[in-house]
Amino acid sequence: MISDEPKTLHIAHLGPLGTYAEAVAINYTNFLKEKAEVKTQLCPYPSIAETLYAVDSKETDLAVIPVENSIEGSVRVTMDTLWQLDDLQINLALVMPICHALVSNAKSLETIEKVYSHPQALAQCQKWLNAFLPNAQLIPTKSTTEALGILDQESTTATISSKRAAQIYNLPILASSINDSPENYTRFWIISRVDVDVPDIYPHSSVAKSTHTSLAFSLPANIPGALVKPLEVFSQLGINLSRIESRPTKRSLGEYLFFIDLEADDSQSEIQLALTELSKHTEILKVFGSYNVLQISKSSN
Ligand SMILES: O=C(O)C(=O)C[C@]1(C(=O)O)C=C[C@@H](O)C=C1
């Protein structure tokens, strides 16, 4: 018998409970419920790489992954893992305002000896940490919530987490808005396998056309001008780049992969032409697809 029950979409995100990635997944789930009447189940994973492996191995349909932060730049593990995997595509970008808090049972800042958090969060609060906790040991964790469980046993320990996480774990906030710039945003991508039909969150609107396309490539040879040729393809076709990042190929020192975001939709004829041209000047070319960008409101984390 064929069931009329809508399929439940499983969405992988960095856990445990209370991460920023989970807050983004909740927002995305609300969009899906409202616009496409889809059921979802959130699936926390212990690391960002594992959320991508979950989609790749068909354990989940989608993954929410952090890509880039306005203070600290790219999330390197995201780029490195995306490059390793094939057949994944970006469906949507969500930009989340990030407001960090210092969470601790300590009576005052003076008694704090250790601060745990995700390296991105520690880096986004460097100046504040130098100014207010110059002697504290900074300990990187896999997420901003991984160490929240130990705070009840350790009164000289703190974490950098969201206000929402402090509420979920019922823990006190010792200092709020501790990121070095109040304009702190992280861009996340919603990733699926290319063969998965992801519901359209704009079914009845005119916002159908995608605004961005992302891709990555390696170069055929490490010679002068090797990067100029691929970049010229975009300038000659009048396609604007909104981001370019390099990562080591991990094959030999000084060899790089390039990650590029374009302000265009890959169904446009210029982009089709650009991709054909680009394949002539690159060694491996991976196109992660076209998507729209949505802003999440400040009250969400
Ligand atoms: O640890 C979390 O809460 C995350 O969702 C990860 C992450 C990141 O990797 O950038 C997401 C947003 C913030 O920039 C800090 C950490």
From TrEMBL:
Keywords: Amino-acid biosynthesis, Aromatic amino acid biosynthesis, Lyase, Phenylalanine biosynthesis. Gene3D superfamilies: 3.30.70.260, Periplasmic binding protein-like II (3.40.190.10). InterPro entries: ACT-like_dom_sf (IPR045865), ACT_dom (IPR002912), Chor_mutase/pphenate_deHydtase (IPR008242), Preph_deHydtase (IPR001086), Preph_deHydtase_CS (IPR018528). Its EC number is 4.2.1.51. Pathway: Amino-acid biosynthesis; L-phenylalanine biosynthesis; phenylpyruvate from prephenate: step 1/1. CDD domains: ACT_CM-PDT (cd04905), PBP2_PDT_1 (cd13630). Residues 10-193 form the Prephenate dehydratase domain. GO terms for cellular component: cytoplasm. One of its GO terms (molecular function) is prephenate dehydratase activity. It comes from the Bacteria. It holds the Pfam family ACT. GO terms for biological process: L-phenylalanine biosynthetic process. The record marks 186 as: Essential for prephenate dehydratase activity. Residues 215-292 form the ACT domain. Coiled coil: none annotated. It catalyses: prephenate + H(+) = 3-phenylpyruvate + CO2 + H2O. This is Prephenate dehydratase. It comes from Mastigocoleus testarum BC008.
